[in-house]
Design a protein that fits this description.
Layout: E1 10-15, H1 17-20, H2 27-36, E2 37-46, E3 54-55, E4 60-61, E5 64-71, H3 77-87, E6 91-97, E7 101-112, E8 115-126, E9 130-131, H4 137-145, H5 157-172, H6 192-214, H7 218-237
Parallel strand pairs: 5-6
Antiparallel strand pairs: 1-2, 2-5, 3-4, 6-7, 7-8, 7-9
Helix pairs in contact: 5-6, 6-7
Length: about 240
Amino acid sequence: MMFNLPEKYKVGKKVPMKDLIPKEFKPDIKKKIKESVKGVTLSYQIMGEDIPSLVNDEYNFQVIQFYDFELTDIKKAVFIANLYQEIIKSACVLRLHNASSEAYSFALKRLNQNDNTQIVVTDKFVTALYPTALPSSDKNTLLRELAYDNIKNRDNKGAFYFEIFLRAYILTNDKVYAGAKSFLSKPIWYSMSKLKEVYPLLCDLASNKEKVQKAVSNSEKMKLNQEIRQAISELDKI
């Protein structure tokens, strides 16, 4: 059962392979999908207005879907996750697994401003790998933090999904900022503006730390280190 979702949201419907692969895909991509994916199930979907929908010019959150992808090789998880987050228009969580390992995929999407039948994926990531069957404290933490009853912001489905996304992002990137995990228990989750403050700061911090590793000149390193300290100090205040 994914994230202790209520029974009323359970679907448990297998997705036929022919519906899984868009016709317009090139033969080599189709072949790669067929070789990588054993089967897909739409496990759950949060529908109805218990958590209100969010529909405007920028977003269309009427449903949040939870898919289960069984893979032949877990090494294909990132390729499959990134591909299907672009194909599936609704906000969704993908669980990708083989017999021994599993990972979860999340993505933020908005409507394409030129064609609102299409989506634009603005941010996406895949978690670390967790053992499928063996006990794992990291996996238990993820499942506990993302459990349905633990998600605080129910203003609308957009806020609800963003909270799931951010909790998973923090756990996946907890080494980037020493106090990252402390956010999980802070009362920031009720405030969308607070969450929208935390997320870009963590992203900038991660990207600047990566850039410092690659920086050649000392002046570039100094500038990046200054930006890193600035982001840390802003995160410390939240």
